[in-house]
Design a protein that fits this description.
The chain is of the alpha/beta class. It folds into 2 domains: 167 residues, Chitobiase, domain 2 (2-Layer Sandwich); 174 residues, 3-Layer(aba) Sandwich (Protein Transport Mog1p, Chain A), CATH 3.40.1000. A 7-stranded antiparallel beta sheet has the order 7-8-9-13-12-11-10. A 6-stranded mixed beta sheet has the order 1-5-6-4-2-3. Strand 11 and strand 12 form a beta hairpin. The longest helix has 22 residues. It is elongated and about 65 Å long. About 8% of the residues have low confidence.
């Protein structure tokens, strides 16, 4: 498993473990498989899940419970989009074609199961692939278990997709922007290659694909760390608006980006054992009709006593934005801060 995958697993491990009590966590069985032969590429798109279940399970309480979990709206998007898109296939049609899907959840009621549990397998029939086998002694226990483990399903599958995107970015990323970030901040970050247009400001870097229908953006900026009060929601919005107003402007002088303060959520996350603040919300352009979702990570660069903020934001009117934003979110997890003054000076 490469270093970027380790980054995200460490970052979200607390979230995953928090989704289960100790006894529930013991009921999750991690199965490691040594791949001895090459397997084909998996089918399906990111954030798609295929449910394998008999019709009686799929049409019953367990199937309904799982659909409600998977199709829960993703937070902080301008239009409602599900966390995952779901399809269904009966066990009798689960064959060498359908078993190539990238994310599979197998539901089964088995009299041989003494209690409900989850088994995990990776890259069994294709790669990348995650198979979650959910078994229970009865339909009722299966349904209850799925409802109890709502956050586990959502978090684990989300982490899996973020891992995949980050691994791809590690192999193929915008080297020009990464170099610019190294020179200005002494940091590293891997962003999609198509974000080729770069703008530099004071303690600010912005990369965009400058697309026609879908505009993807990543920016990195910094400011002095004075106290932990900078990590409040109010301070975050004020600081973000200061940088965006100065650096992301429209065609006319009175047009600039600002944060829609009614739609911002911040929370603490763990990145490689270090504190970070995640913010999700909506941005708009003053005196213009543009707007869309954003996600950012704010971390303290203890070597240089400053806060480094990495953000991804999207403009895609009349388009689905979930997967686009999630890909930029994966890029944020690749951010690497300087670990020593020497390293920081060398990169600057």
């Amino acid at each position: 498993m490469n270093k970027i995958i380790h980054v995200i697993i460490v970052c979200l491990a607390v979230v995953l473990l928090a989704s289960c009590t100790v006894d529930k966590a013991d009921r999750v069985q991690h199965r490691h498989r040594t791949q001895s032969i090459l397997v084909p590429s998996s089918s399906g798109n990111p954030y798609e899940v295929m449910i394998v279940a008999e019709d009686s399970i799929w049409n019953g309480y367990a199937g309904k419970a799982l659909r409600e979990v998977m199709e829960r709206p993703m937070p902080m998007l301008p239009q409602e989009e599900p966390m995952f898109h779901v399809s269904h296939v009966d066990h009798k049609h689960y064959d060498r074609i359908t078993n190539l899907f990238r994310n599979i959840i197998v539901l089964e009621v088995s009299p041989y199961s003494t209690e409900a549990h989850i088994g995990l397998q990776r890259d069994l029939f294709s790669s990348p692939q995650l198979i979650m086998e959910v078994k229970a002694p009865s339909h009722r226990e299966l349904s209850s278990f799925i409802t109890e483990q709502t956050q586990y399903f959502l978090n684990y599958l989300s982490v899996e997709e973020l891992n995949r995107s980050a691994a791809i970015l590690e192999e193929q990323h915008n080297a020009k922007f990464n170099k610019a970030v190294q020179e200005m901040f002494g940091c590293e970050i891997y962003i999609p290659t198509e974000l080729m247009k770069i703008k530099k400001g004071e303690n600010f870097l912005w990369a965009t694909n400058d697309g026609t229908n879908v505009i993807q953006n990543v920016c990195v900026y910094s400011y002095p760390y004075v106290s932990e009060k900078v990590f409040t929601r109010k301070s975050y919005i004020a600081l973000r608006d200061t940088f965006m107003k100065r650096n992301i402007r429209g065609i006319k002088p009175e047009q600039y980006m600002f944060t829609n303060s009614e739609f911002v959520k911040v929370k603490n996350i763990n990145k490689q054992g270090h504190y970070a603040q995640e913010a999700r919300g909506l941005w708009e352009m003053q005196n213009d009709m543009m707007g869309g979702p954003f996600i950012s990570h704010s971390q303290v660069d203890t070597v240089n006593n400053r806060v480094i903020v990495a953000e991804g934001f999207v403009y895609a009117p009349d388009k689905m934005k979930r997967t686009i934003l999630r890909r930029l979110e994966a890029a944020l997890y690749t951010l690497k801060l300087p670990t020593s003054k020497t390293e920081s000076n060398e990169k600057n």
